[in-house]
Amino acid sequence: MLTTLVLTALIAQKDVERAIEVPFRLGDDAIIVDAVVNGKKCSFMFDTGYSGSIILNDQINVGPVTGVQNLRDFVGTFQAGTVKMKSLSLGEKKIDAKEMEITLQPVAHMSLSYGTHCDGIMGFEVIRDYVTEINFEKRKFIFHPRSLDISKRTPDNKKTFLNKLLPIGVGSMEIDVFTKDGKRLKLALDTGNAFFATTHKDCLVRVGLWAENKPVKFMRSAQVASGPVDSWYKLMTDMKIFGVDVPSSVWSIIDLPSSSAEGDGTVGFGFLKNFNIIIDMERRRVWMENFTGKTGNEMLADVGIIPFFFQDRERYFIGRVIPNSPAAAAGIRVGDELLGIDGQELLDIGQRKVMSMLEGPEGSEVQLTISRDGTLLRPKIKRALLINGLPGQN
């Protein structure tokens, strides 16, 4: 009997000490992972910027509602019902879910948004207690044994980087970002942010990267969980992001104060996808290995329209025409129905894909198919760089 007990213990210990791999796939600017939640097979956008565990389409029955949770995004807070988490597994990996909750929201549009099936959001709480690798190169999570201590590694600060998390809570990974003048921004590592990086206008005013009283062109609209918010694209030069020198990158800047007094925004998918990342929250370290050789993002031109998908009508409509843009000069109006881009109809195409279809090299042309009061219009418009902070810009 004693031999059997010892053998069982050794087998259990070996299982604890082995790495467990879980594949994921890449949607449009997002990680998508399959999981089983309270016995239901679901797919989730993996979002380290969400401090909770699971946000699930409220049409999927995973049990009775047991409470309410407050959710917070870049700009606001809102409430949603919750269900007690009984079990959660990612492939072979069984997650200790006894303290977790499932938050219910009407997120049926997410499959359209990411270009692949998606039932909700999986947050940071799911991986927080493990040494977890997000391996973008091979498209898999690796749950490493606790014996892997990345704090003992020595980075070369060219291809490999070791960051110590700032002492700002346990629900996010806040890390230093520095301007070329050495001024600091505190940005979270956020796989759920589709942009390269996002911060707030007042944060840039604080570090001297935004002239508070100077007019700014090319206002856009960004869609966050709590609703649309005014925003801009801005060229940022000579930044040090999570220890990485980034000579040039384009950020999304939000025209509202941060909903958190602790952080200044997040570094998103556009930057992170160039790295294999190991997160050890207990030791408060993040190891990053650059496998693409890239650090910045490409400056893309566009025509200057922001389309929004209206779920009830299953159509895209122009929600904003950027002032001083080619679309404004061509007479495109808010409320116009956007039917097609370069001859392709916009049926079953997510907003991220639609936005990428509108982008291209500066000076290239795109043909839109527009419906206005029953009249069909097919304007051909040249793309332009609608980015603030470009050299020589007034």
Could you explain the architecture of this structure?
A hairpin with a 2-residue loop joins strand 18 (220-224) and strand 19. The chain is built from six helices and 30 strands. The protein has helices at 2-17, 110-114, 201-206, 269-272, 326-329, 351-358, and strands at residues 20-23, 25-27, 30-37, 40-47, 54-57, 67-72, 77-84, 88-90, 93-95, 101-105, 120-123, 131-135, 140-144, 160-164, 174-178, 184-189, 197-200, 220-224, 227-241, 244-254, 265-267, 275-280, 285-290, 305-310, 315-321, 337-341, 344-345, 365-372, 375-377, 380-382. The longest helix is centred in the N-terminal third of the chain and has 16 residues, at 2-17. The model is unreliable at 7-15 (pLDDT under 50). The chain is globular. 11% of the residues lie in helices and 42% in strands. With 394 residues, the protein is mainly β. It folds into three domains: 25-130, Cathepsin D, subunit A, domain 1 (Beta Barrel), CATH 2.40.70.10; 164-274, Cathepsin D, subunit A, domain 1 (Beta Barrel); 305-382, Pdz3 Domain (Roll). The protein starts with a helix and ends in a 12-residue tail after the last strand. Strands 2, 3, 4, 5, 6, 7, 8, 9, 10 and 11 form a ten-stranded mixed sheet that branches. Strands 24, 25, 26, 27, 28, 29 and 30 form a seven-stranded antiparallel sheet that branches. A six-stranded antiparallel sheet has the order 1-13-12-22-23-14, with no helix packed on it.
